[in-house]
């Protein structure tokens, strides 16, 4: 009997060792999805859409990309200085990619200094930091500062405009054609309320640090010229910062052809909104209609959010690893726009692979978290491993076998 008992243990030991070195059987992997790549149709609600006193208008929630209101959204119109949303996007992307830095010094060309319209009165050969030129663009809508930055990034304004149009194509801004970097009236320089919302979304979602500048009411730069150093005051062109408590930015514009335009952003109770106005008859109407649109959004919708980034959502087995199990966490927070009056609670369902084979690095995909609102799927987030796992050494395997043996 003793011999048979030992033999059974040896056979069990061999089978266990074989199982620990076998390839895992994996569940079918469900792809996770982040924010939509393109804006979604308007959310249905009980409140009727409002009419806006402008040639075109659109209200979007930028995180989900859902459109709440639209009026002539694809009509091609001159955007005036709202053009600079794309200019700012390319500037912030160049900084993020390491092509330029905030402390780089830019020398103003004669061409940049010659820009009319809204300006900060840069002189030819005057030098300014990227940081101060960005302030001049975002706060004071300086055409000269925008062109100076365009030349610094691309070598010439024309080359930068090519970059602008290429980026517009990447974002599926099919109503847009840029001819300059600042928005001065030029035949053929056109976009739409929809496209402005798309590029605004790309800027504020990917580069929220732009709000560090767009929320400034007054600031200054120093003009450094042959006459010495002189302070120059910057006043924000966006009066919503004073009249609308939730306002966070972003860009105004006005010319004789474009009339009065704005891409206005606001944040209230966790809900971010972007109201685009093109061709309002006067500045008061521009700001008033933007407020009316955003008030409509806040009165009718709320934001529901899933688990925060890095929330632990379970654990998964590791095969052939120095670890037997590893925790998994949420990669991206899921958000959903909910009509007011409904619960803002989201339900979560976790789908994991059977196991993850070692070796692997932290943030290896191991499954997906699916979020539901009232039974309807509203978003997904990848579940990723919290830590690395190395391939198991023989000592790891033997140690586990011995633990099971004595159990």
How would you summarize this macromolecular structure in one to three sentences?
This protein has 407 residues and is of the alpha+beta class.
The percent range for strand residues is: 25-35%
Number of domains: 2
Percentage of residues assigned to helices: 25-40%
Shape: globular
Contiguous runs where pLDDT drops below 50 for at least 5 residues: 1-7, 10-37, 42-48
Structural key phrases:
Beta-lactamase; 11 helices; 17 strands; globular
Describe what this molecule looks like in 3D.
The protein has 407 residues and is of the alpha+beta class. The chain has 2 domains: 247 residues, 3-Layer(aba) Sandwich (Beta-lactamase); 101 residues, Peptidoglycan synthesis regulatory factor (PBP3), Domain 2. It is built from 11 helices and 17 strands. α5 crosses α6. The protein is globular, with a radius of gyration of 28 Å.
């Amino acid at each position: 009997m003793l011999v048979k008992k030992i033999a059974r243990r040896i056979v069990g030991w061999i089978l266990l060792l074989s199982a620990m070195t076998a390839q895992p059987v994996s569940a079918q992997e469900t792809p996770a999805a982040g924010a939509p790549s393109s804006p979604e149709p308007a959310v249905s609600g009980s409140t009727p859409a409002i009419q806006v006193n402008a040639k075109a208008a659109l209200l979007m929630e930028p995180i989900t990309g859902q459109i709440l209101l639209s009026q002539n959204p694809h009509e091609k119109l001159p955007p005036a200085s709202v053009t600079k949303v794309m200019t700012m996007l390319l500037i912030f992307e160049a900084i993020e990619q390491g092509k330029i830095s905030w402390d780089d010094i830019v020398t103003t060309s004669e061409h940049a200094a010659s820009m009319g319209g809204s300006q900060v009165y840069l002189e030819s050969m005057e030098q300014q930091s990227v940081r101060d030129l960005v302030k001049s663009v975002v706060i004071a809508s300086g055409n000269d500062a925008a062109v100076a930055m365009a030349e610094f990034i691309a070598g010439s304004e024309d080359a930068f405009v090519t970059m602008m149009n290429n980026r517009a194509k990447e974002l599926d801004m099919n109503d847009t054609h840029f001819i300059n970097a600042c928005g001065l009236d030029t035949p053929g320089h056109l976009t739409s309320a929809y496209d402005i919302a798309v590029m605004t979304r790309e800027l504020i979602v990917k580069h929220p640090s732009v709000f560090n500048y767009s929320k400034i009411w007054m600031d200054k730069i120093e003009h450094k010229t042959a006459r010495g150093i002189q302070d120059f005051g910057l006043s924000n062109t966006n009066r919503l910062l004073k009249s609308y408590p939730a306002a966070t930015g972003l860009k105004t514009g006005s010319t004789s052809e474009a009339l009065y335009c704005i891409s206005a952003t606001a944040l209230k109770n966790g809900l971010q909104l972007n109201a685009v106005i093109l061709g309002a008859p006067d500045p008061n109407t521009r700001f008033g209609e933007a407020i009316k649109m955003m008030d409509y959004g806040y009165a009718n919708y709320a934001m529901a959010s899933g688990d925060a980034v890095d929330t632990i959502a379970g654990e998964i087995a590791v095969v052939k690893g120095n670890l037997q199990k590893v925790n998994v966490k949420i990669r991206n927070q899921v958000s959903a726009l909910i009509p007011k009056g409904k619960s803002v609670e989201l339900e979560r369902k976790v789908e994991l692979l059977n196991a993850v084979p070692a070796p692997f690095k932290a943030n290896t995909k191991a499954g997906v978290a699916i979020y539901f609102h009232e039974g309807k799927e509203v978003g997904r987030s990848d579940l990723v491993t919290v830590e690395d796992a190395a391939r198991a050494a023989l000592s790891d395997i033997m140690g586990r076998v011995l633990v099971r043996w004595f159990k």
